[in-house]
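User: Hi! I'm working on a homework problem where we have to compare a predicted structure to a textbook description. Could you give me the structure for the chain below?
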Amino acid sequence: MQHVNFNLKGPHIELIQLLKAIGVAQTGGHAKMIVDDEDVVRNGVIETRRRAKIIVGDIVVIGGEVEITVE
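Assistant: Happy to help. Predicted structure tokens:
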């Protein structure tokens, strides 16, 4: 599994923006498809909200292959 640390520059980032920012999704549409396919786990729970506010301390796993720690 690939581990990525993401430094948050504000109070939160929307999930689809995070997927684009780290390069997992090439476009917003691709990011939405990843979320809609239930390939995103946030803090151990499947996340289905495209615009979920990701905050410092969250751990997001995409497809069981990429783990993002939000700092």
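For your comparison, note the following. The longest strand covers residues 2-6. The mean pLDDT is 96. Good luck with the assignment!
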